[in-house]
Each structure stands twice: as structure tokens, then as C-alpha cells.
Design brief:
By secondary structure, the chain is α+β, with helices and mostly antiparallel strands. The chain has 5 helices and 19 strands. The mean pLDDT is about 90. It binds FE2/S2 (inorganic) cluster and fe (ii) ion.
Length: about 350
């Protein structure tokens, strides 16, 4: 005879994992999307004729490389009947929709319609984003207006080649960049004593130099100089000069907002040997030259060990506004004032298209 089994295990109903800190916000954000350049995809991931899809400000963006090597970033959905162009193909300089084979040119205009069509539908234009390929990456402009500035070359070719690693973190671009202004955490979270020069604000650029000392007992403490430059809230460069070791590390950070409180944070790094050559520096440089690129992942791993502790903080913190700042905390106030310029009155949209529900 069939019998109901007694409840085998009451533990089944136990609540698990409640001690884990949760993200500061889920599906919403106290800060809107900032207008900036963001790294969409490393150049190495988009060969000739390739099509890829990336997320930016709650939208899919399709990025492709034409036969002649140009890169374009476009709205993901075809303006004809809405197919996703991430399934499309590149033909010459055009992207071709997989559904009815309309081909769109560099400006998003229909180059030709699919076989069997006799004319082009009216008002059928594919919105295109401004793009810049530099620093081993493809950067797209997300803004209410066209960009009035571009981003500079920073990871130059005489360094070890730039390699990007991307992390998914529940936070916001402004929170990521504020890290540089918060000099107390550099000691208390990362273990470096730090002194900051005043931040210099010039339009869309904020520059800040830090003198850092890292105790590495029993060796003498390591002195570093970090020159930080933010170009908007989506492109940040850090040049770290370790004179004693004859090394310069260059780090590029681009936190791309994919959702209201979530970024895909790309970190690119490269190394360069620098004069002056002291005795230790000569040893390090010899090792570096002998091992060549093999040294790069090691330096990368050391860098990421530092950033991991930031990830833990960012991925569960709240945005405090106004910030309750104590004396000697670094230029957090000036940073926040400077950051305001990237939030135009009109909310930042990727494109003003009637078919986009934001
Ligand atoms: S939906 Fe793209 S061509 Fe028809
Ligand atoms: Fe940090």
C-alpha cells in the first residue's frame, strides 16, 4: 500500500547563506548613468569580420569590425522588424541583419535591402554610437550629446602588450573612481602609507598624484609614485613609477555600467623598464629582460591581489551622500564636485529611438 513518506529532513527548510553581505542596491541606483567613454571590448576579441554583443546602460550593443578593419557599435535591434544584429554578419563595410538581409552602412543607413524587396522602408535607420579604437580596446561614447573630447593613448606599444581582464561588480563607475581620492583606505585596506597632492581639475580631466610607501620587511620599504588621471568616469589611467626597481607600471581602468548598479570593470596593464638604474633596479631589469613577457602575469597577479580587496568593499557598500568626511581624507569632496559634470540634465540615453523603452 502506498504511504506518504514522513518529512525526511527538516534541515531542507533551513535558511542558508544569510550571513553573506548583499549588494548595496539591486536593479536600481542612487546615481544615474554618467556620460563618458567606456571600453566595450578589447581589440583582440574582435577580429576582422567579427560581430559581438556587449551590454551598456541596460541595453545590448552590437559591435563589429568591417573588412577594412573599422569598428562600429550599433543599437542591437534592427530598425526594420527588430531582429538582433548580434546574429548578423559583416559584408564589406556593412552589417547584414539575419532576418531579412537588410545591410546597414557606417552611418546606419540602409545600403541595400534583402533579396525580393523592391524599395527601402522609410525612417529605417540603425542608431550608431561614436567609437574610438585605442589602447588595445574599442571604446564607445555613451552620452546625451556627441562627445566634445576623446581619450588619449596611454598603454603605448613600447610597453609589454596591454591585456585586459574584465570583472563583474555590483557598483557604479563613480564609486570605482572615487577610490583614488580616498587616501585613508590606501593605508587601511591596502597597507600603503600614502600622501596625496591636491587634485587638479581641468574640464573633463582630474589628475592626482600619490606618494606611496609599502613596507616589505625585511627589505627596505618600497617607494612608489602613482599618477592618476580620470578622463570622465569611464576611463582612468594610473602610472606607477617604482624608481628603485627601474619599473613603470601603467594601469588602465574602465568601469562600463551594464545595469543601474553593476559594472563590467576592465583592467588593462603594461610594464616598462625605466631609468635611472640603481643596483637593485639593474637586477630586477635583468630578470625582467631574461624572462620577457613571462613576468607580466606575475605582475598582473600582484596587482589583482590589491584590487580584490576593493571589489569586496564595492560589491556591498552603499553610496553616502553627502559624504561625512573627516580632516585629511584626501580630495573626495573635489572629486564629487568634478564628477557632477557627467550627469547632464537629460538622463543619459544611448540613442533616442522610439523603439527603446528605458
Ligand atoms: S528585421 Fe532586420 S532586416 Fe528585417
Ligand atoms: Fe583601493
Amino acid at each position: 500500500m502506498w504511504r506518504m513518506k514522513p518529512q525526511a529532513n527538516w534541515r531542507h527548510f533551513a535558511v542558508a547563506g544569510e550571513s553573506e553581505p548583499t549588494p548595496g542596491y539591486v536593479g536600481r541606483s542612487p546615481l544615474p548613468y554618467p556620460e563618458s567613454w567606456y571600453l566595450l571590448i578589447p581589440s583582440a576579441e574582435l577580429g576582422t569580420g567579427k560581430v559581438a554583443t556587449r551590454r551598456l546602460m541596460g541595453q545590448d550593443v552590437v559591435v563589429y569590425r568591417t573588412t577594412s578593419g573599422h569598428v562600429r557599435a550599433v543599437r542591437a535591434h534592427c530598425p526594420h522588424l527588430g531582429a538582433h544584429l548580434g546574429h548578423g554578419t559583416v559584408q564589406g563595410e556593412n552589417i547584414v541583419c539575419p532576418f531579412h538581409h537588410f545591410a546597414y552602412d557606417a552611418n546606419g543607413a540602409i545600403a541595400h535591402v534583402g533579396p525580393g524587396y523592391t524599395d527601402k522602408p522609410k525612417h529605417c535607420t540603425l542608431p550608431v554610437l561614436h567609437c574610438q579604437e585605442t589602447n588595445g580596446g574599442i571604446f564607445a561614447w555613451a552620452g546625451a550629446n556627441s562627445p566634445s573630447w576623446t581619450i588619449p593613448e596611454f598603454l603605448t606599444s613600447h610597453h609589454t602588450p596591454a591585456r585586459y581582464i574584465t570583472y563583474d561588480v555590483p557598483t557604479h563607475p563613480q564609486e570605482v573612481l572615487e577610490n583614488g581620492a580616498d587616501i585613508r583606505h590606501v593605508l587601511l585596506l591596502h597597507g600603503y602609507s600614502a600622501a596625496s597632492q591636491p587634485a587638479v581639475l581641468e574640464g573633463h580631466i582630474l589628475s592626482q598624484d600619490l606618494d606611496l610607501i609599502r613596507p616589505i620587511r625585511p627589505l627596505p620599504p618600497l617607494k612608489l609614485r602613482a599618477e592618476i588621471q580620470h578622463h570622465g568616469l569611464g576611463f582612468s589611467t594610473i602610472r606607477i613609477n617604482i624608481a628603485a626597481l627601474g619599473l613603470e607600471q601603467r594601469i588602465l581602468v574602465s568601469p562600463r555600467p551594464v545595469e543601474p548598479w553593476r559594472v563590467h570593470m576592465a583592467i588593462g596593464a603594461s610594464i616598462r623598464l625605466t631609468p635611472p638604474y640603481g643596483r637593485e633596479a639593474a637586477l630586477v631589469q635583468r630578470a625582467f629582460k631574461a624572462t620577457g613577457r613571462a613576468m607580466h602575469p606575475l605582475v598582473y597577479r600582484l596587482l589583482m591581489r590589491e584590487v580584490n580587496s576593493d571589489f569586496q568593499i564595492w560589491s556591498s557598500k552603499k553610496y553616502t551622500n553627502p559624504p561625512r568626511i573627516a580632516a585629511g581624507e584626501g580630495p573626495i569632496g573635489p572629486f564629487r564636485k568634478w564628477a557632477r559634470q557627467f550627469y547632464p540634465e537629460q538622463p543619459v540615453k544611448l540613442w533616442n529611438d522610439v523603439n527603446d523603452a528605458h
